[in-house]
Amino acid sequence: MRIIVKNVTLVDGLTVKEDHDLYIKDGVIACISPCISPIKVNSDDIEESHVVQIIDGAGKIAFPGFVNAHTHLSMVLFRGLADDLPLKEWLEKEIWPIEKNLKPQEVYWFALLGIAEMIRSGTTAFADMYFYMDEVARAVEESGMRALLACGIIAESYDAHGRKEIETARNLIVDWHGKANGRINVALAPHAPYTCGCEILEKTRDIAVSAGVMIHTHLSETADEVKRSYADLGMSPVKYLASLDLFSVPILAAHCVHVNEEDIALLAEHNVMVVHNPTSNAKLASGIAPVMQMKAVGVNVALGTDGAASNNNLDMLEEMRLATLLQKVTTKDPTTIPAIEALRMATCSGATAIGIGELAGTLTVGKRADIVLMDIDKVNMLPSYDYISDLVYAANSQAITDVIVDGQIVMERGNLTTIDEERVKAKARELSVGYRK
Amino acid sequence: MRIIVKNVTLVDGLTVKEDHDLYIKDGVIACISPCISPIKVNSDDIEESHVVQIIDGAGKIAFPGFVNAHTHLSMVLFRGLADDLPLKEWLEKEIWPIEKNLKPQEVYWFALLGIAEMIRSGTTAFADMYFYMDEVARAVEESGMRALLACGIIAESYDAHGRKEIETARNLIVDWHGKANGRINVALAPHAPYTCGCEILEKTRDIAVSAGVMIHTHLSETADEVKRSYADLGMSPVKYLASLDLFSVPILAAHCVHVNEEDIALLAEHNVMVVHNPTSNAKLASGIAPVMQMKAVGVNVALGTDGAASNNNLDMLEEMRLATLLQKVTTKDPTTIPAIEALRMATCSGATAIGIGELAGTLTVGKRADIVLMDIDKVNMLPSYDYISDLVYAANSQAITDVIVDGQIVMERGNLTTIDEERVKAKARELSVGYRK
């Protein structure tokens, strides 16, 4: 498919270009120019004439699709099921018991529901860690989304259970890494330093090295986790992972709320990709990650929603806004994370974090076309003096009209094109009945 | 107009009632019942048969319209004009110089724009403090909104300027208090203890007493303000206002970010109505108000957006969510401000704060009909286990379909009925051109 977006204002973490045309060919941003003619575009192609779809971008901004760098997608099934509880009680009494009986088809349908929600709120790529990940991969493939997928591994040692966990995770790499026209990558996901024995952590490191994949894990999410790490291991979770050489592999570390100066230096030294999840960390009262300290020493900090059970949505516009508000108020400096920096965290930093920085995250000729169009002629966004401010501080997802992933239009004028939304909603209602209290 | 909302789920700070009908007659909630027949309703009326409008509430929740208890409505004109700046620089270099040349017609058109935004995001009443308030009153009257309006008074002493400020404020009471079928009330608004001399503060107190109106002011917004108050007056701003007997009048105090234990005791003792503005306080890095400490001693804490120049929207769904997230993370207790308590702050506490607690804030028979309908069959709100959680933690304003104020439908199936939205947007674009940098 070839697409020209006409007369749109391009906004990304690098620059703003008013009233430009954007040409997409074979999934790639082929040209950005003040005026691109559909006739000219076709005549360039000697072999054959192609249909070029024209999208009117007047009154709209185009920005790189958001990268939701840490979520547990199918947990949308548990949205609103258990709120306002302490983390331990929430996990042990509410979430883990019902997750034990989770069925593959539930993971599939709620992955589709979550993808529909993400597309509607401008996300074009995400990093996921959960169970039955083949089902999630299937949903990603069908929906046209881009994702870094991983089976969450929880195992004390490399016993029968541990081997099974590792085997499942390894199979996902074999079956899905690089698939769906390269839209799907696979990572290995030891759940956290406190839920995996060191043998398991080392095993994942070795497999990651040999398979050439990333590691995705939770790290230093709560004060209690860090306290127990010092009690059990005599060091912080960050230092522990460093000591096991986990950081020799490209690694995506979610949370990093409770990290000290030494930890932060280690994260920077080893180029660990940190994912800040401001809503989830606030809702569970885990804390506010020291984003500014990490960024100050060069750590790449991306943004994520975490699972919808602790958020309770997958809206990256909200994460972007909350990230800058929380840092401003905790540092007592309103210049902290200006709008453009918040946008970068949600786009190019996210793309870098999940290993697709060369492919996505900015509106750059040669990159894959992961693009969102937003109608800014809305009562909550007028008048418009600064497009990036509008997007970061004023917008909500209502204004998003079209979403393109890898050159394919997955939402067109408010309608999802790859997902049968009514069917997915009906399935969500049907499959959730048994979970009602 | 008579309206029956059929088969809707009623949600307020008191209770949840699934699948009920709600009957509105003469602007009042006349009946709530599992089944109300339009024929029965008409035959009850001996004098004449009335047209009854039926709204299908299936798949929707109805909740009391939000009360935005502190804003500067027409500042939507400055949305996104100057972000990421320290408060002093923002006010003195950006906002005050342009406000000096503000024109009445700008205040009128941007009040309409702001009201359109508030209706679309479920707000049915607001407390405003600004200039050219006749223009705002006109916009409120025309749009069908409910409001507590006040001219902001800034004056060192009761000199020519001070007298003019007081006179303008007093005229607003004469012209508008109790008008528009009681939808408009007027307050007196000495801007802040640090921008008004004590003579002015005492004058507003006396006029408020004799006219029977509320006072609306800013109080203890920044650490610097409190520091200067101790330096200049030897006491905190709260204690200063108490010493001037300002709290003998019903008073709406915006912010109260930097209040100590003694201040909080004074606020409770004098039943001061506090308005928490979480987004604005975070964006300007002013701080996080000690909401839990104030609530613990019985202070009524409402929510506000503040002006859009420091927010940058007027969306109470966002304020509600941020209020609970900020308190959870600062108290390190995820049970703090559970969803229902956040909803109360945005509805009944807000109504109480702006002096309309008897009229609005809950879905109660006999109260005025200020009601919002939300379609919860959305991908970002499914599945639905807990309607209040859905509303507080997952929803965005996109799901709002119908808004009723004082028994009048001001938004019907997504269309504003009292405001010519395209004209207001065109005016907003036209009048903002001169402010572009």
Question: How do the helices and strands line up, and which of them pair or pack?
Answer:
Two copies of one chain form a homodimer.
Chain A: E1 2-11, E2 16-25, E3 28-33, H1 38-43, E4 52-56, E5 60-64, E6 66-71, H2 87-99, H3 104-120, E7 123-130, H4 133-143, E8 146-153, H5 160-176, E9 184-186, E10 189-190, H6 198-211, E11 215-219, H7 223-233, H8 237-243, E12 251-255, H9 261-269, E13 273-276, H10 278-283, H11 291-296, E14 301-303, H12 316-331, H13 339-346, H14 348-353, E15 371-375, H15 387-394, E16 400-405, E17 408-412, E18 415-416, H16 421-432
Parallel strand pairs in A: 1-4, 1-5, 6-7, 7-8, 8-9, 8-10, 11-12, 12-13, 13-14
Antiparallel strand pairs in A: 1-2, 2-3, 5-15, 15-16, 16-17, 17-18
Helix pairs in contact in A: 3-4, 3-16, 5-6, 12-13, 13-15
Describe the 3D structure.
2 copies of one chain form a homodimer. The first copy, chain A, has helices at about 40-45, 85-100, 105-120, 135-145, 160-175, 200-210, 225-235, 235-245, 260-270, 280-285, 290-295, 315-330, 340-345, 350-355, 385-395, 420-430, and strands spanning about 1-10, 15-25, 30-35, 50-55, 60-65, 65-70, 125-130, 145-155, 185, 190, 215-220, 250-255, 275, 300-305, 370-375, 400-405, 410, 415. Chain A is an alpha/beta fold. Chain A has 2 domains: about 1-65 and about 360-420, Urease, subunit C, domain 1 (Roll), CATH 2.30.40.10; about 65-355, TIM Barrel (Alpha-Beta Barrel). In chain A, strands 1, 2, 3, 4, 5, 15, 16, 17 and 18 form a 9-stranded mixed β-sheet that branches. In chain A, strands 6, 7, 8, 9 and 10 form a 5-stranded parallel β-sheet that branches. Chain A has a 4-stranded parallel β-sheet with strand order 11-12-13-14. The longest helix of chain A has 17 residues, at about 105-120. Chain A starts with a strand and ends in a 5-residue tail after the last helix. The model of chain A has no long low-confidence stretch (mean pLDDT about 95). The interface between A and B is large, with 72 and 72 residues.
